[in-house]
Specification:
The protein is mostly helical. The protein is built from 21 helices and no strands. Among the domains are: about 120-225, Serine Threonine Protein Phosphatase 5, Tetratricopeptide repeat; about 230-325, Serine Threonine Protein Phosphatase 5, Tetratricopeptide repeat. It has helices at about 5-20, 25-35, 40-55, 55-60, 70-80, 85-95, 110-115, 120-130, 140-145, 145-160, 165-170, 170-175, 180-190, 195-210, 210-225, 230-240, 245-260, 265-280, 280-290, 295-310, 315-325.
Length: about 325
């Protein structure tokens, strides 16, 4: 949106708020202007004026309104009230829904008052909310849009290096393909205290990058820190399977089952990896029986592919497994 268009939108919002007695409608117009030019200061100035002059009406109209037209305004109003944690979480939610808009270029998001007060825990939660809708973020365009978020991560992680929060923060730059920042957050967390979540963040980043040896080493570090965590055995088993080491994958899945014998993911993975290793019909039958319980169809299909490549399997059983895969 051009500066002239932003000014026109702000002017019309002023008319609606005062002459038309519709502050909620004015907010909707101003959020539209922000969505078109999120770095422009004028809409925020108009919102601040509305908040000062018509706060009770705005609070009533915005209460419980989670629509896209309301959330960016709510985030800014929370900032004006000094509630930086709820402000950043609201901005994370709208960013997750519409990452095609550079919401983070809002002047308040880079303001020293915000960066100096927002907690590491809230910023970490906001980062997770940006990923809620599964949009593809690993592009140059997205990395440019998320640059203010990366700056916020640098500032807040240096001020408040809470290891668990930094590990969660690392998910956003990893999703954007900004691996250097993801690893830097892990390093900063480890300098304070070595925790399992940081090792998992590091392992997942290596895995996304395709470096399975480093991913396996990091998952092993995570297991050293939390040896009773069944999901870590599964993560490491899956990496070993990617490496073609199905003996290690089957062994790790079995170790995980010692800690959580009823977990369906572990049971299915163990059956698949044993099938690939030994070609026993009983293991493939076990996988077939468990397959309907696997909500993640991508993972289910991967396990079936591994299993069906096992030696000397019954063609009938393989065909039955593949029908499930293709359903």
């Amino acid at each position: 949106m051009s500066n002239q268009s932003v000014a026109a939108g702000v002017g019309l919002a002023g008319v609606m708020a005062h002459c038309g007695a519709s502050p909620a409608g004015a907010v909707e117009l101003l959020v539209g202007a922000i969505a078109s030019a999120p770095a422009a200061p004028e809409p925020y100035g108009a919102l601040a004026e509305l908040w000062r002059d018509r706060r009770p009406e705005l609070q009533e109209s915005l209460e419980g309104d989670g629509s896209l037209s309301a959330v960016p305004a709510q985030a800014y109003f929370l900032f004006l009230e000094g509630d930086m944690d709820d402000a950043v979480m609201a901005l994370g939610s709208v960013t997750g829904a519409r990452p095609d808009v550079a919401w983070g270029t809002a002047p308040w998001f880079g303001d020293g008052r915000f960066l100096g007060a927002v907690s590491a825990e809230a910023l970490a939660e906001a980062c997770l909310r940006t990923l809620d809708h599964g949009h593809v973020l690993d592009t140059d365009e997205m990395r440019a849009r998320f640059a203010p978020w990366f700056h916020a991560l640098e500032v807040v992680s240096a001020r408040s290096p809470v290891p668990e929060s930094l590990a969660a923060m690392a998910r956003l730059p990893r999703a954007c393909g900004h691996y250097e920042l993801a690893f830097a957050l892990c390093d900063r967390a480890d300098a304070v205290d070595r925790v399992m979540w940081t090792a998992v963040a590091r392992a997942t980043t290596w895995r996304v990058m395709g470096n399975l040896d480093q991913a396996a080493a990091a998952f092993e570090d995570a297991l050293d820190l939390d040896p009773a965590n069944w999901s870590l055995y599964l993560d490491l088993a899956d990496v070993r399977a990617e490496q073609g080491d199905f003996a290690a994958a089957a062994r790790l899945a079995a170790q995980g089952l010692e800690h959580e014998p009823h977990e369906v993911l572990l049971r299915a993975a163990a059956a698949a990896y044993r099938t690939r290793l030994s070609g026993l019909s009983g293991d493939l039958k076990a996988l077939i029986a468990l397959a309907p319980e696997l909500a993640n169809t991508t993972y289910r299909n991967l396990l079936i592919d591994y299993a069906c490549a096992g030696p000397k399997l019954s063609r009938r059983l393989v065909a039955k497994a593949r029908r499930i895969r293709n359903s």
